[in-house]
Amino acid sequence: MRVLVTGGAGFIGSNLVHALVVGGHEVGVIDDFSTGKMANVHPAVWLRHMDILDPTLPDVVAEFAPEAVVHLAAQTDVTRSIADPSRDRAVNVEGTTAVARAAAAAGVGRMLSASSAAVYGNPESLPIAEDALKNPINPYGSSKLEAEAALAEALAGTTVDFASMRFSNVYGPRQDGHGEGGVVAIFAARLAAGERPVIYGDGRQTRDFIYVGDVVGFIVCALEADSPLAGPMPDGPAYNVSTGHAASVQQVAAYLSAASMVLKQPEFAEARNGDIADSVLDPGKAASALGWSAGQSLDRGLAFTWRWMCANPS
Prior knowledge:
Elements: E1 2-6, H1 11-22, E2 26-31, E3 46-49, H2 57-64, E4 68-71, H3 78-83, H4 85-105, E5 110-116, H5 139-155, E6 161-167, E7 169-171, H6 183-192, E8 198-200, E9 206-207, E10 209-211, H7 212-224, E11 238-241, E12 247-248, H8 249-260, E13 267-269, H9 284-290, H10 298-311
Parallel strand pairs: 1-2, 1-4, 2-3, 4-5, 5-6, 6-11, 7-10, 8-13
Antiparallel strand pairs: 9-12
Helix pairs in contact: 1-7, 2-4, 4-5, 6-8, 6-10, 8-10
């Protein structure tokens, strides 16, 4: 399969690209390198250094002529979304529309687009299923929710099968501590420097931490699925990509301390405004529709992440 990955030099994107290349697929990458790194790019890929909002995007996509597109390029920093919501929306909403239109024009058969657990906001109950109330509490979550609708609108009436992927807190190799789920990379970096991790609040807040290898597994599974991804969702087909298990921030710090053997007790700082107390997503739809489920336990995933950081200190 010829697969184009936007944001393919970033954290999730580069892990996906490497897996696709190893799996025998022909891979193209579009990345503006605002957060991605050239060191992450697999030498075998077709690469274009450009912004997804560049007006020549349709020509570039047509040049590669992909059979499938995985759209991962995004503005993922919540703090930055609050400081500059217009830029956040431009990248996440207008960028998604641009990629979707370019994909349709190029005759792509399937498109997967990254969304986020942030679309749900403060949940009414746990775990959160795809049809739960959407009430994002920051511009980032709002732009991701709008991007899902923009994707559905741009591809309505086309032959492109598509889905939005609502990632929970992704962690693993190549994460640099910025964006969603960055707490793992931040904790690990502080431990590597012999410093104490800093926890905002009491540390009992929970998240659904998913190893990047499991996210890659979902994407490959969805790309190779025989049946259409579309489902009866009011804002277009969407899938939670998560473990379905909650873990506290304190637990993450303890697992990393054990994996690193750097026995530093965390520091506690004042809770940040707008932080959600608890979030865990229900991955049941992905299991029933695609036969996919996350397989990596949190303690082993964090141990793998720590070993990768030690082997790649830069």
